[in-house]
Design brief:
This protein has 469 residues and is an alpha/beta fold. It has three domains: 3-123, Gyrase A, domain 2; 138-214 and 402-463, tRNA modification GTPase MnmE domain 2 (Four Helix Bundle (Hemerythrin (Met), subunit A)); 220-393, Rossmann fold. The chain contains 16 helices and 13 strands. The strands form two sheets. It has a seven-stranded mixed beta sheet with strand order 3-4-5-6-2-1-7. A six-stranded mixed beta sheet has the order 9-10-8-11-12-13, with helices on both faces. Helix 6 (159-183) runs antiparallel to helix 7 and helix 11 (320-332) runs parallel beside helix 12. The two termini are 21 Å apart. 45% of the residues are buried. The structure holds guanosine-5'-diphosphate. Guanosine-5'-diphosphate is lined by residues 231, 233-239, 252-254, 259, 281, 343-344, 346-347, 372-374.
């Protein structure tokens, strides 16, 4: 793929707005020529005569060849560049007008405007990055929490690609044995050979299953867990919300039913990312219209949530409303993790064993946290979240962790093909049948890492990037 010829493109690779500097990146066969036309080194030499991978100081010319700024230019000769093509990076002062003028100059001097994610896409097409690594670049740029940074940095360092490569390499020996058996049917593979093929396929299946199982935590970090904090008015939802966000973002008040709208916040909590919605108090009897909308929305939020924090006031007996919330949770229980927060423990626990048992019946054993949102940091709750999403079991920086639905789909395809292949071996099916299924699994593994992937999928992935990446 390295010999593909692309247009030469340019874009601003630093964020919009004012900054100390901005970087305009130009990539493609003509990148050096474009840079030569718009950059005049202080030394008087042509930029392309100043060597590559060296910062060269000079004057930047605008679209009409008038000096517009001074700055640095660095040339990278492909394939030793980010995109694998010839690349010129020009740094100018980071004002919006200066940046725009330098970009327009690049366009006037022979470059086309780069599309979203075009530099990373070229890096992928030129074999500089695997697809999971390219996806990690996007995530790395977007990373706003420590866990997200660890996950994307691990992906970019090739943790997932390497693991997939290892699984494929393991399968390759089986493929060789299978092809030999097909090509020379007169030479019987023998029981030993068949056992070996079965074992390798089973091992690959286990490896694929193990990698797939990392999706739960990968996704919980990368996309975040849709979380709802619910409970009747005054149990301490807002206090809990504030404790988790670390800000006074929800209004805490003594008057029942005042948190009417749904507040949202994304927080790093318990080793994963929670997308928090704090709902209005859930009430069976609604009086005002505003309150009613809030409650209906709260019900919908509960239906769509992946993590439900059901808050109860531990210093009082369960009320009718608490009972209704428990009924609602019971009836909407799907895949969502329900954690029961028995709050206000500083006032002493008034809930009876029977009442606590009722709560446990809905959220499951070991998922009840007795705490005080008013006087604690929430460590027990964080630990419960960590356990529920298995966040402590993997090292996001070092282990292969998948986080993208596309990666999961491709791996699931590999898993089902491998399952069928193992079944075929166990049933003593003809060798070519086993071989077809193993080939299908290999192709799905390749697809996971983008070694053979549909153009439409590639387009879809890079569309999510912004211009300049
Ligand atoms: P919400 O209506 O469920 O959002 O409840 P709030 O967070 O507004 O809390 C209602 C009242 O309970 C406020 O006066 C809080 O200060 C108080 N509160 C919340 N959590 C605790 C707690 O753990 N202990 C005590 N003693 N009071 C609390």
């Amino acid at each position: 793929m390295t010999d593909m010829h692309f247009r030469t493109v340019a874009a601003v690779s630093t964020p919009r707005g004012k900054g100390g500097i901005a970087v305009i990146r130009i990539s493609g066969d003509d990148a050096f020529r474009v840079a030569d036309r718009m950059f005049s080194p202080a030394s008087g030499k042509a930029l392309s005569d100043c060597g590559t991978r060296r910062a060269v100081f000079g004057t930047i010319l605008d679209a009409r060849d008038e000096p517009v700024d001074t700055g640095l230019a660095v040339l990278f000769r492909g394939p030793a560049s980010f995109t694998g093509e010839d690349v010129a990076e020009i740094s100018c002062h980071g004002g919006p007008a200066a940046t725009e003028a330098v970009l327009l100059s690049a366009l006037a001097h022979g470059a086309d405007a780069a599309g979203p994610g075009e530099f990373t896409r070229r890096a992928f097409l030129n074999g500089k990055l695997s697809l999971t690594e390219a996806e990690a670049v996007g995530r790395l740029i977007d990373a706003d929490t420590e866990e997200r940074l660890a996950l994307s940095a691990g992906g970019l360092r090739g943790n997932v690609s390497r693991r997939i490569g290892e699984i494929s390499a393991g399968m390759l020996t089986t493929m060789t044995a299978l092809y030999a058996a097909i090509d020379y049917p007169e030479e019987d593979v023998g029981d030993e050979g068949e056992r070996e093929i079965g074992n390798t396929l089973r091992r690959s299946l286990e490896e694929v299953r193990a990698l797939l199982s990392t999706y739960r935590v990968g996704r919980a970090v990368a996309d975040g867990v849709k979380t709802v904090v619910c409970g009747r008015p005054n149990v301490g939802k807002s206090s809990l919300f504030n404790l988790m966000t670390g800000e006074e973002s929800a209004i805490v008040t003594d008057i029942a039913g005042t948190t009417r709208d749904i507040l949202r916040e994304t927080v790093s909590f318990g080793g994963v990312t929670l997308r928090l919605a704090d709902t209005a108090g859930l009430r069976g009897d609604t009086d005002g219209r505003v309150e009613e909308i809030g409650v209906n929305r709260a019900r919908r939020e509960i239906g769509e949530a992946e993590l439900i924090l059901a808050v109860f006031d531990g210093s009082e007996h369960l009320t009718k409303e608490d009972g209704e919330l428990l009924d609602l949770l019971e009836s909407t229980k799907g895949d969502a993790v329900i954690l029961a927060v028995v709050n206000k423990s500083d006032r002493g626990i008034a809930l009876t064993g029977e009442e606590l048992g009722r709560i446990d019946g809905v959220c499951g054993s070991g998922r009840r946290i007795v705490m005080s949102a008013a006087s604690e940091k929430g460590d027990a709750l964080a630990q419960a979240v960590r356990t529920a999403f298995r966040a402590g079991e993997l090292d996001l920086r070092r282990d292969a962790v998948i986080w993208d639905v596309r990666q999961r789909q491709a791996l699931e395809h590999a898993r089902s093909a491998l399952e069928a292949a193992v079944e075929a071996v166990e049933a003593g099916d003809p060798v070519d049948c086993v071989c077809t299924l193993a080939e299908e699994a290999m192709a799905a593994l390749d697809e996971t890492d983008g070694r053979s992937v549909d153009q439409g999928i590639v387009d879809e992935i890079f569309k999510r990037f912004c211009v300049g990446k």
